[in-house]
Amino acid sequence: MDNTTKEIDTLSLEENLKTTFSSMNRVIKQQKASLYVQEIGIVSAVGKGIVTAKGLPEVKAGEIVIFKDRQRGMIFNLEPGKVDIVLLDDAKGIKAGDEVRRTHQVMDVPVGESLLGRVIDPVSRPLDGLGTLRTMERYPIERESPPIMDREPVYVPLQTGILVVDALVPIGRGQRELILGDRQTGKTAIAVDTMINQKDKEVICIYCAIGQKLSSVARVIAQLKKSGAMAYSLVMVASGEDTPGLNYIAPYAATSIGEYFMERGKDVLVIYDDLTHHARSYRELSLLLRRPPAREAYPGDIFYIHSRLLERATHLKKEKGGGSLTALPIIETQAQNLSAYIPTNLISITDGQIYLSPQLFQGGLLPAVDVGKSVSRVGGKTQLASYQEVVGSLRLTYSQFQELEIFSRFGTQLDESTIKILERGKRIREILKQNQYAPYSVMEQITILLMVNQGLWDGVSVEDIKKKIIEIKKNLEDRFPQLEEKVMNNKKLDSDEVKRILDFVETSILKREENEPNADAGSHSEKN
């Protein structure tokens, strides 16, 4: 009995093995070996932020390559027999003789709605601890700017909430407006205020920090979170501690993300803070790669790297989606030298500039916008119709005041008309002062400017102006919803509507000043 069972088990095992081996042979015969050529280069030299490699004959400019420890680099120079690579990661561990492999992909970034509210670096690594990015599409960082025939004139305003900017240097959606000034004069403050003011205005904001201190960027992010602006914003960070290659690609990566939203009919604001550090990173890379230096040791194509970046900011036709990309590049001047190489380049590329004066900053006039040196070349076309009515000759009046104020310091006797211009000018200067992170609504700005036009501020002492503006903000909220809707629809206010606003100011704001002394007198008499 036992012997029979053993024979049956042996037979079944043999059959199973035969079946298994025959199946394996059949599968092996069906398999076809696929051979492919893989290009591998050899590192010949390693420098600060750059690597030179031999081989890689078919590699493309801008292609991503991988080193042995998964560090990434981007092809920057193509030369016979060798390539120069810009490192996007730390060079630690890379040495001569190491292998470098092609990826067959040019440098690109993920794009999509899921990026909003996130903090990332230019190669799309999350820096906020909120997990991996979940996006379906990727855009190359270098893209052609939209052709002229796909563009539309800039006419929709981008409200910054800053009175001096919205009234005297208006910015439109699709415009390129340069913010420049010496260090520590409030350039980033204007950009961040503009981002905060886009709440409920359907504008997506991208803040691109280039070469900044991480502590400064952390403060900006904290303020954006506090004011609720991160919900519609993305922050891209390439700090001063990162490689020059990462600083170089940062603005292009941020613009590609902005273009994704623009092509879907949305309005986008991109802030580059700042392009001075970007130019220095490019100069560093170029000098390390032995490219011939030109003025101020910058390479000859420094103008082109900024022009091809800012040319991507535009307002598209409705057939192309109707979206817009507004660029606010920031640059730092040294000792108020506007005629230096990078400032003059960017002034000629952009559609205007907001210049921040260190003298005004030190004098306590914040934001320190120098009205005489600031200009918007798109100008009144982007302003709401009601602004054009109330701004009028404000710039001229203020410029006259500044000249007369300098003249009056010589102690000469002044006639009545000159004294009147000086007194009004002092009040205009006080009105243009504004606290950071406290944007004005459109109706608040219109009301304040109407009072300037009508001379209603002339009866208010300079010391009390700030108090009166706070009262206007407090009392004006939701007071004239129909008028506000009319203003936002780019319609002019008629004389009756202007009268309603002025009556409100006189009864609710200015008359209070007259009544307060009487109230004090009454209380004193009661005590007696």
In short:
The protein has 528 residues and is an alpha/beta fold.
Model description:
With about 525 residues, this protein is α/β, with parallel strands linked by helices. The chain has helices at about 1-30, 165-170, 185-195, 215-225, 245-260, 275-290, 300-310, 340-350, 360, 385-390, 395-410, 415-430, 440-455, 465-475, 480-490, 495-525, and strands spanning about 40-45, 50-55, 65, 70-80, 80-85, 100-105, 110, 120, 135-140, 180, 205-210, 235-240, 265-275, 325-330, 350-355, 375. The protein has an eight-stranded mixed beta sheet, sandwiched between helices. Strands 1-2-5-4-3-6 form a six-stranded antiparallel β-barrel. The protein is elongated. It starts with a helix and ends with a helix. Residues about 510-528 have low confidence and may be disordered.
Number of DSSP E strands:
16
Percent range for β-strand residues: 15-25%
Backbone shape: elongated
Q: What gap, in angstroms, lies between the N and C termini?
A: 129 Å
- In helices, the fraction of residues equals 40-55%
- Which value, in Å, is the CA radius of gyration? 32 Å
Biggest sheet features? 8 strands, mixed
Widest β-sheet, arrangement of strands: 8-12-11-13-14-10-15-16
Mean pLDDT metric: 90
**Helical run tally:** 16
Low-confidence stretches: 512-528
Class by alpha and beta content: alpha/beta
